[in-house]
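Title: Request for sanity check on Exonuclease domain-containing protein prediction

Description:
We are preparing a figure and want to confirm that the structure record we downloaded matches what your pipeline produces today. Could someone re-run it with the sequence below and paste the raw structure tokens into this thread? We only need the token string, no images.
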Amino acid sequence: MNYIILDLEWNQSPTGKGTENKEIPFEIIEIGAVKLDEDRNKISEFSELIKPQIYHEIHYKTEEIIHIKMEDLKNKETFPKVIKHFFDWCGDDYIFCTWGAMDLTEMQRNMKYFQVKELRDRPIKYYDIQKIFALIYDNAEITRTLEYAIDYINISKKESFHRALNDANYAALIFKQMDIDIAQKNYSLDYFYNPKRKEDEIKLVYENYSKEISTEFNSKELALQDKDVRSTVCYKCGKRATKKIRWFSSSAKVYYCLAYCKEHGYIVGKIRIKKTIDGKSFAVKTLKIVSEEEANLIKFKQEELRVKRRKKRNNKRLQEIKKRNNA
């Protein structure tokens, strides 16, 4: 099996947030990739610019970062043709590797918009080199740039960053130096196409945490009512952990809880509510065994949110009283 180290550059609405096409907020204008064999030796490269069909001006920030002008793109081929060239180049037996979690999602979003046949109708396994770099070399809680990683490993910077092929080559150099066993144990899933049925739900157990991706629901509320979504089963022993703090929201899309396993200690749960491409909801739940100190942070987070909400309610009441007195 080959490794396809993929990097994309994209444009967005030149007039800013709120004016974008909701179906395709980011339009891909460059694809760069490096193909490695199973021993991570370089086989070949892919690089093509793409003629835009949605946004006909380059957003000023995009131009500042990637140094691509509209004149560079106007005589290139369109996305459907370029993506076909790309998949012909990929071959049949490969796994994607990317720096970060956005590239596969945006590639599939562009494919859907331009009515290109989907890669798969379910989540796609891939290696997130950025995540694996953090696990091996750095702090797993901090998101690092590609240039930071290149400097950290002391790789020579011969080419500029923020062009697709250059970034793919840099990511490939980092990937070649990684312990492949650690990479394989910490693969990621892109869920642009989420599980559609209960029997297709995904449950993954990594060394330090577990992840579950639910089926889809008609609303966020129904997702949060599902007993499997809300459950806290210890991923080490398979026994149900006792809730110490029930699920509470820190935002409209993120929920936390704290549970306790008699054998393995405190477990922090986190649910992120995601939207499907057709407007439904599904849940991505992670469970992680933590120290007592980390467990106390969840208790503090809950209390802090309670105080903020209480203060907000009190301020609202005061405003209402003032309005009535001034009437």
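Thanks, this matches our download. The mean pLDDT is 94.
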